[in-house]
Structure formats: structure tokens, C-alpha cells
Amino acid sequence: MSKLACLGGKPVTENILGGARLTSRPDLERKYLLQAYDSGDWDDWPGNTKSMAARFEKEWADFNKSKFCALVTNGTHALQVALETLDIGAGDEVIVPGLTWQATASAVCDVNAVPVLVDVQADTLCIDPKKVEEAITPRTRAIAPVHLYHRMADMDALMRIAKKHELHVVEDSAHMHGSQWDGRGAGTLGDFGAYSFQRSKLMTGGEGGAILTQDEDSYWKIVSQRSCGREYKEGVKVHSGNYRMTSFQAAVLRGQLSAHRKNAPRIDRNGLALDRAVADAPGVEPLRRNKHITRQCGYAFVFCYDKKSYDGLDANAFRRALSAELGVGFGSTYAPLTHSDVYYPHTKKRHALSKSYVKAITPSRWKLPVADELFYDRAVLTSWHFLACPPRRAHLLTDAIAKIYENRAELLKASADAAG
Ligand SMILES: Cc1ncc(COP(=O)(O)O)c(C=O)c1O
Fold first, then answer.
1. What are the extents of the domains in the chain?
2. Which residues pair with 115 in a beta bridge?
3. pLDDT tens digit string along 355-408?
């Protein structure tokens, strides 16, 4: 039995990626940037179909098989503008998963509505449709499922619930560039799909966001809403602010999309091989993949750890040991929103509308046992760059997990010694 790398032994591999990288096209990014600069069309002005922004809008819509796409400043604003376009605001509730980046819930507070935090499924990390149905009240106006990390949320179940209760659906697709449900792009199944192009995402323009919709009138409403409420139809006025993206960001994104066309099928294939590698290893499980997911790209690669199988070994000790064996860092999920250190809307003066509103948006009022267990004890996560790992090297993941399993007694002892 060879000694664990985190205890001074030789790792299974110096780096599981073995130099593999996903495609990038900096040459195209530069070319489009200069074109945008030389054109003088630096913004995304309504009605200008020639700007770099308008061209990326068309390409991003086509890539996702969406009828319409409107670019906005970032993913948070994409959610906010979508909610405002649905006329969601004071007195309304929006159902949001409790395990997500804070933006999904913050955007709801930013339109003065109440985010209702619902627990997730232990085997997908996405919002649990059964719990969504239980959380519906007469004030509920929308569900905002998040396609989180390495799985799409169960859109069939969620759309059925939305239809039954006449609710809107805003898909937070910030993690899902290139994923498909029955061949349809993530973000095209609900009323709106919100994307982020922030720097850590699978595609980035430094910052940026996009909203997909299948309805022409909704598209023009979004265009108006992102542009200070300029009249989009004779006599129709909406109050709003400026949420427009620049054509420079869109230029970089056109280059990024060109690369992602190649990367998306590769990420899906590699992810499946890595899931199989996890399935072959002791005491761990891959996430469940819904049969409707026809292409899975995601912001992270995740699997679940079973502490009992490792005689109670702390998940953090497992994550550290795995990182040392594979030369790639593994951690956990976002902290659930009930105790996230970037989500405390009840402390902000802007939200101090009434005592009852502040109470309603106080995150600690919710209980999220599944999300908590995932965060502390079960989820083992690494960034999407890991998905460059080719299928022929995926067995190294099985080998590393098996090695930790065989050495669990030694690791338990080392952890106990370190704890004093
Ligand atoms: C799930 C999710 N939703 C929304 C956002 C917000 O996107 P942005 O950072 O572009 O505002 C993020 C960004 O990190 C995210 O991870």
C-alpha cells in the first residue's frame, strides 16, 4: 500500500490533466476587439444590428437554439432585469435554491420581492421540485432554478409545477454555457434564461450577462428595461436604469464562443468519463444525470463523498488528500445561503422597507439540511478546467480515490494527531 501524497508519499500523478487544455481563441478575441474599436460602434444600442454586441447576441441565441438574446451588464442584472420584466416586485415571492451563488437570491431582493430559499437534491445539487411545490404560497410569482455546477435542474418537473400553479420560470444558467436539455439550450425552457460572463465562467468577457427568451414581446421589453426604459412600443413606458453591455466585451465573447463550440461536446464527453471513474471508486458517487440532459457542460466537476464508508474521515481531509494525489485542488460548494458570508440582505438599509419585509428576507429563517450536508460532508468539487481531463486519464481519479480509501486508517490517525 503506497503512502498518501499528503503524508509525504508519491502522488498518483503530478497532474491528472497531463497538459490537456480546453481550446481557446485569443487570436479571434483580438481580431474582433480591433474590429469593434475601428467600427466606432462601441455600445449595444437598441436597433443597431451591425454592432459587435448585436452580432454576438445573434450567435449566442443560435448556439443555444433560442429565438432571442439580449446582452446585459452581468449575470446578476440578467436575473434582476428578467424579474422586473415579469413585473415581479413588492409583495411577491420567488422560489430560489438555498445552494447557489448569492446573486440568484440578491436579485430577488433587489426588486423588493422575497426570495424563498428551498433545499436541493442530494444527488444533483439542484433545487428539489418536491420542495418547490411545498413552498408555493398565494404570493409566489416565479421559480428561479439554478443549473448548478455539473447538472441541470429537473426542468420537466419544474415546468410542470410552474404550469400547474401559473408561475413564471427564470432559469439561472450562469454555470451552464453549452448545456442542453432534450437538445434545447439551458435557459430556453423557462420564460427567461440568465447567463453570466464573469471572469470565472466557462465563457467570459471580463464581465457581462445575457438573457434568453422565446417570446418576441418579452425580448423588446427586456431591450427597453436594460436601456433606461426607452419606449419599446408606442405608448408603452417602463421605468428602468442602464444595464447595457459594451461591444468590446461582446467582441471577446465572440472569440470565446468560437472556442466553446469545440469545448462543449468535449466537456460533456470528458465529464461522462470522469463520472464513470467516480462510479468505479469506493465510497463515492457521481451525481445523478437526468436522462433529458443531452449535453452537460458546467462550471465545476462535482461528486459525492460518503463519510461513513471512510470510517468517519472528515470530508476536508479527503478533499485535501485527493488534491495532493492529482495535482488539482478540490474543495466544497458555495456555503448555503442561510450562512453564506456574501448574503445578508436583511442588514442593508435599502431593504429596510418594513419590519415584516426584513424578517422575510433574513436568510436564517430557512432550514436547508441537504445543502448543509453537501457543503460540510459530501460534495467534492473542482473547477471546470478539470473537465479538460481526457477519458484515457480518467482512471487516475479512480486510482487516487481507491488509494485514499485503502489508507483511510492512516489518514484518520494523521487528522486526529493534527487536531491534537
Ligand atoms: C449561479 C450564479 N448566478 C448568478 C451569478 C451572477 O453573475 P455575475 O457575477 O455576472 O453578476 C453567478 C456568478 O457568479 C452565479 O454563479
1. 5-23+260-334+373-419, 26-256+342-351
2. 94
3. 999 999 999 999 999 999 999 999 999 999 999 999 999 999 999 999 999 999
| Confidence band of 238 (pLDDT split at 50, 70, 90) | confident
196 lines ligand 1 (CB under 6 A): yes
Let me know: does 168 contact 141? Beta carbons within 8 Å: yes
The verdict on the CB of residue 173 being under 6 Å from ligand 1 is: no
For residue range 9-49, list pLDDT tens digits in order.
999 999 999 999 999 999 999 999 999 999 999 998 878 88
Report whether residue 198 contacts ligand 1, using a CB cutoff of 6 Å: yes
**Helix, strand, coil share (%) of the chain residues, nearest 5:** 45, 15, 40
209 CA: nearest ligand 1 atom: 10
Q: Atom 14 in ligand 1: which residue has the minimum CA distance?
A: 101
Q: What is the CATH number of domain 26-256+342-351?
A: 3.40.640.10
Helix/strand/coil (H/E/C) assignment for every residue in 170-206:
EEECCCCCCCEECCEECCCCCCEEEEECCCCCCCCCC
At 139, list the grid cell.
404570493
Distance between CA atoms of 227 and 81, rounded to whole angstroms? 10
d(CA 279, CA 277): 5
As a CATH number, domain 5-23+260-334+373-419 is 3.90.1150.10
CA of 209 to the centre of ligand 1 (A): 9
Q: pLDDT class for 237, splitting at 50, 70, 90?
A: confident
Q: Kindly give the distance from the C-alpha atom of residue 101 to the centroid of ligand 1, in angstroms, as a whole number.
A: 6
Q: Which amino acid is at 179?
A: S
